[in-house]
Amino acid sequence: MTEIAFYKIWDTTFRNSKNKPRKCLVDGFEKNSIKSHTLQKNGILKEISEKNHLYQFSNVPPFQKKAKGNFELLRIGINDVYTFNGFC
Question: Which residues of the chain register pLDDT less than 70?
Fold first, then answer.
């Protein structure tokens, strides 16, 4: 398998896993989870945001060569920053 073919499979698998519907983490709830903020959106995130955007570190996939390391800063909207699929 070529290196490019491997990275295409890696990327497809990662995207499918990330976008897969997840069940709510609360026992007894069977609904799909929604984006849950790790920090209160209308609290601290609103206070430190600029035009409803924040910066978040993101891992760079190992096959994307970056000159300055394995992380990059991404400007992300307040509705998507610091979220995980956890609760319904």
Answer: 59-70
Q: 9-31, pLDDT tens digit by residue?
A: 878 887 787 778 888 888 888 88
| Whole-number Å distance between alpha carbons of 84 and 75 | 17
User: Residues 6 or more apart from 24 whose CB is under 8 A from it?
Assistant: 30, 31, 32, 33, 86, 87, 88
Dihedral over Cα of 39, 57, 47, 32: its sign: negative
pTM for the model? 0.56
CA distance 83 to 40: 10
CA 7, 23, 36, 80 torsion-angle sign: positive
Distance of CA 88 to CAs 62, 63, 83, Å?
33, 34, 13
